[in-house]
Design goal:
elongated; 8 strands; six-stranded antiparallel beta sheet; single chain
Length: about 190
Amino acid sequence: LKVGYAFMMGHAGKKLLFMGQEFAQLREWSEERELDWFLLAEAEHRQMQSWVRDLLHLYRRNRAMYEMDDSWEGFEWINCITPQSCMLSYLRKAEKTEDTLVVVSNFANAKQEFTIGVPYEGKYREILNTDARTYGGSGCVNEKEIKTLEQEWDGKPYAIEMVSAPLSISIFAYTPYTPEEKAEIEAAKA
């Protein structure tokens, strides 16, 4: 479905304004008629509505999506120059390190495995993926928590390995290792 996201987003807690884009209305919005709610009888429109709902929940629940919007410190490229893979990745940051999000976009029309550099040791859990079945995708998601590799990548001290569906976006939340987990890792190395 060809959809334009012409809605306004305010900071967390403020009202959001929509004009049919949240369910992929096909006709242009007009004040002379109601929205085409009947489209929600079709799976694709319900899936788009679910995607926009979950994206907005992500926005409201994750400080990295809004806390440092007015500062260069809130955004950091991980990799913006991989033309052979047609991918890019970046960080959304908040004041607390544990609120960091990693965003990976696959612009190729092919499933790919990526190694992504990350700045913090710990666990990364996919919290949103455009290819999830609930949004009409094929279900190529990263279901398990991904632990960092002690490997420099993309100019970052650690890395994660993930799979990416064609033409998809994955968003990962960061969680530091607990002292117990860190002790287990150190014991396994010894």
